[in-house]
Amino acid sequence: MISENDTPFELSNIKIPSKTSGWNLDAWKYVPKNKESGPPFPVIVMAHGFSANKKMGLAPYAEEFVGKGYACVVFDYRRFGDSDGSPRECVYTSEQLEDYRTVIAWVRQQEEFDSQSVILWGTSYSGGHAVSLASEQNLKLACAIAQCPYVGKAAKPPFGVFLKMSAYGIVDLLRQMVKREPLYISACAEPGKMGAMTTPDSIAGLERLVRDKRDYPNRISASSMFEFPFYNPSSKASKISCPLLLVIGERDELCPLDFVLRRVVRASKNVSESRTPGGKTDKALSFQQTLVS
Question: Which PANTHER family does its entry note (predicted)?
Fold first, then answer.
């Protein structure tokens, strides 16, 4: 077991006030111990995808980045992981985008970080957030990385399952309107079952990311599924104002490769791509292919 003294970075747990009074975003702050390249250090702001939290495999990415001289701030959205907020496990896209902006603003206020070298990283649904936020010129991002991003199109469930989920979603909306507990569905489920993600590799991918089942309840409010039709990061691709690297799995069954290429890569001269032979959760998604050069 590696002791903290043997690591090339200093790791601390921090709380960042969110836009909701009394709700804090829980985050890990990684700072390189090697002071030759800083401070201030370039900093990468990271969060996970749909229904996930930072305990699900983000630490190895942050450790790889910090080994290359970058600081990292890895956070959970409101309502997820160790962050505050209720009801739990409810996806509000606008809220998640706002949380990214909050953390970006926070890191710019820290003397140990280079305020002119703020980098955004996201995967899957948060990869879509990276695409969306890269188009916001006022954020003045140095660059962004979107791994296997959702950019407006995802695999659809069978029609019967779709109808059932829609009914559950409507009931959930009504329950929440009267301040009752949300109606939850599985976040990941076997193909043909009711869940937010039901491609053949969804369950296998989940098992790779979750070391302790207590860290991930595998549920999402049913009405969270209504976020997908109204969220289209690719519509902002032509406005991307900073270098954006897309790390794309060629066998990604959840976020189609051809749609990502057609709607994002070809939309802006600021976008470049790096492909891996695997899918969204395949081990072939190597760390080196996501590193900022």
Answer: DIENELACTONE HYDROLASE DOMAIN-CONTAINING PROTEIN-RELATED, POLYKETIDE TRANSFERASE AF380
pLDDT tens string 215-249: 999 999 999 999 999 999 999 999 998 999 998 87
Residue at 148 is within a domain: yes
Structural domain of 279: 4-156+231-290
CA atoms within 13 A on the CB side of 100: 30
Residue whose tokens read 């296998």: 204
Residue type, 130: A
Instruction: List the strands of the sheet with 219-221, edge to edge.
Output: 195-197, 184-188, 219-221
Residue 147 lies in a domain: yes
pTM as predicted: 0.91
CA distance 173 to 33: 48
**pLDDT tens across 156-185, in order?**
788 898 899 999 999 999 999 999 999 999
For 68-180, where are the alpha helices, taking DSSP H only? Answer: 93-108, 125-134, 159-177
Q: Is there a cis peptide before residue 40, judged by omega within 30 degrees of 0?
A: yes
- CA 146, 151, 152 angle in degrees (round to 5)? 165
The answer to whether residue 201 sits within a structural domain is no
Give domain status of residue 177, yes or no: no
Single-letter code of the amino acid located at 159: F
Which residue is associated with the tokens 């090697």? Answer: 34
User: Cα separations (Å) of 168 from 91, 195, 219?
Assistant: 15, 11, 13
What's the CATH code of the domain at 80?
3.40.50.1820
Say how many domains are in the chain: 1
Q: Are 247 and 291 in contact (CB under 8 A)?
A: no
For the chain, the straight-line distance linking the first and the last C-alpha, in angstroms and rounded, comes to 31
